[in-house]
Amino acid sequence: MAQTRKKRAASPETAAEPARAADEKPDANAKVHELAMKRWRRADEGDRENRELAYEDLEFVEVPGAQWDPKAKAIREDDGRPCLEFDRLGTAILQVTGDIRQMRPAIKVVPVDSRGDPDTADVIAGMVRYVENRSDAPAAYFAAADQQVAAGIGHWKVITEYGSDSTFEQEIRIVPVPDGIGVRWDPDAVLPTREDGKFCFVPVDMSRDVYEETYPDHPAAEIGDERLSATGMGGWATADMVRVAEYFTKTPVQKTLALMPDGEILDLTDEGDEEHPEKLARVVAVQREGGRVRVEKRPGVKVERFVVSATAVLEGPDEIPGRFIPVVPAIGIEITIGKKRVRRGLVRKAKDGQRAYNYSRSTEVETEALQPKAGFVGTEAQFKGYEHIWETANSANHPFLPYNPDPKAPGAPQRAQPPVPNAASAQCARQAAEDIKATTGVYDASLGARSNETSGKAIKARQQEGDVGSFVYIVNFSRSIRHTGAIVTGMIPHVYDTARTLRIVGEDGKVDLVDINKVGGLADEDQPLDKIQNDVTVGAYDVAMEMGPSYTTRREAALDGMIALVQAAPQLAPLILDLLAKAQDWPMADKIAKRIRTMLPPQIQAEEAQESGEPMPAPPPPSPEQQAQMAAQQRQQQLAEAQHQLEGQKLQVEQQKIQAEMAKIQGEIQRAALDHQARMAEANRPADPAGAPAGGDDPRIDAIANGLQDLAHVVSMIMETLGGGDGAPAADGPPDPQAGPPGPIDMPPGAMPGPTSEAPPGAFSFDPSAMGQPAAPMMGAP
């Protein structure tokens, strides 16, 4: 369940004794301020050299005239010689910071315990991007990146604020730190993100007027205050400036946690929490019911924020949600040499190359500028009386130059030989330019200059090779972005702890509405289901980085890849045409892709609908071609059914013919039997006196019986041929393949009917065995 933001409740003792609390607070603030100033002096002294060199590096690039040594510049200016600056470092810095702007890492959130949910992790990642979007975080990131590359370090910070002046809901915001070089960290912190530091100072210099308006109850220290001078804090107050500092502390605390049987973790640390009695009652109730509750102590931290001046605590303490100090450093190149930590940026080692380049180029310009001012050589008598004309000969365009003939001079005054450009200066300038490239790692190919490469792949490979020398800044910058994601993710359960609707931002920049910390669904008997959708207040989540180009760059690369795939395998175009359209920058490209998606095969549409959670789209109406094909198939089926019925009718006719033949044979048998009976009766009479035989067997019966057996075998073969198997059509319908032979004959092929005592309807009954004859095959027996 989402919990409302925890607020410390006032105890009765505190309410009853406000005077004692007021007396204790100044004492507590005095201890906080004393410890803060002690830590400030230690942090200021520990990083002083790196900080001073960083300010010089930044001034070297940004302040006009800072690229000349002060002594050399003063000498040249006294002589009237030029001190020109041809900044080549600025372009190299822009190249590296441009790569950072193009390759900004993407923050991804992943669950790290059993209570974390992958879907909720995606929502939290969208909330982090939402925070970046509403904060204009890239402005803070890139301002710090400019200082990181040029001076070796930059900073931004994460704050919480109310969404507006008419709401109780807070928001998270990422803001820049203008003076990122001046941030003081705990000297004992060793991690690149300084997340192991116990304190941090973010100084802000403001005018005295603004300070007095902001903190009227705390007058600024006077200039020359003995207390400030004695403690080394004299720079905190000047004639027109007062320094204040945000002071962040991270204090170890002992937390009491209770693990409930259902996996829920209750924090029982703060007894002053207004929800503490309710949590304790839940633990006791579960234990009484025989449930096992695991209660243990865990080391934790408490992060607090103060605002301090040189003499007092101006604000605080304000508890910061999460476990990190919300200040993020972006470090350039940092190396520890023994006990000394050295930090620099791109400018530090390229200064001498830039100074040599400026000196050489200024000398070349100076030499070339003196060429048109070469003087005239002549005797004094030649110029006498015309001095005003010859003095302006180099600046005015006189139509003629008069002079006095002088026997001592061979001819008219001549212009002196102009100074020749110094080849050594040009060579020195070229060498200085190469030195700058070597120290920065940014060569001409990285800046887009033409080289001997001709193919696009070769040019791109050369540019990427030049980026390797400056990749350390990109890696450190991405590490800082990752730490920012961890800070924001740690703040989200405390700041966004109530049910609300947010506009989260997807990786592709699409804005979606999502509900967080809301109960959803119904249980039995319309009782609310105790299940929260997108509960961001439970579970542990970590931040993973996806290093690479921005989404726009990757989308363009995907578009090129899909186009190449379609060109190589045109048969795949109908399957990926919707994705190809979606990757375009056209207006309404999404709508075009949606229409193309309706033309995909049904199995692909079903898979897309399952992934997006949408219902399966209705099948499109058949096209005229499909309708014609279906009609042709239906006609073929009807024709096959009609032909089947005709074959059945033919079989019925054949069956009727066979039954007629069988009836005829039965008649023959009956007549033969009557004749046999008559002969037998004749044989029982007294013998003819003439000695004729009294009677005997009729050979026709045996012949008829044998013929009937052969006929039965032939009929069986005919039925198999006409019926296509063992079955034959019924008399009133199509043939049944499971039925036996139709008609009066119902016996296996080649078998003879056994004796019968009852004739079928329309026939007579007799038993040949009664007359001492073998049983004749009888047809029509049931």
TrEMBL record:
<feature type="region of interest" description="Disordered">
    <location>
        <begin position="606"/>
        <end position="627"/>
    </location>
</feature>
<dbReference type="Pfam" id="PF16510">
    <property type="entry name" value="P22_portal"/>
</dbReference>
<feature type="compositionally biased region" description="Pro residues">
    <location>
        <begin position="732"/>
        <end position="752"/>
    </location>
</feature>
<feature type="compositionally biased region" description="Low complexity">
    <location>
        <begin position="768"/>
        <end position="782"/>
    </location>
</feature>
<feature type="region of interest" description="Disordered">
    <location>
        <begin position="1"/>
        <end position="30"/>
    </location>
</feature>
<feature type="region of interest" description="Disordered">
    <location>
        <begin position="677"/>
        <end position="702"/>
    </location>
</feature>
<feature type="compositionally biased region" description="Low complexity">
    <location>
        <begin position="686"/>
        <end position="696"/>
    </location>
</feature>
<feature type="compositionally biased region" description="Basic and acidic residues">
    <location>
        <begin position="20"/>
        <end position="30"/>
    </location>
</feature>
<feature type="region of interest" description="Disordered">
    <location>
        <begin position="723"/>
        <end position="782"/>
    </location>
</feature>
<dbReference type="InterPro" id="IPR032427">
    <property type="entry name" value="P22_portal"/>
</dbReference>
<protein>
    <recommendedName>
        <fullName>Portal protein</fullName>
    </recommendedName>
</protein>
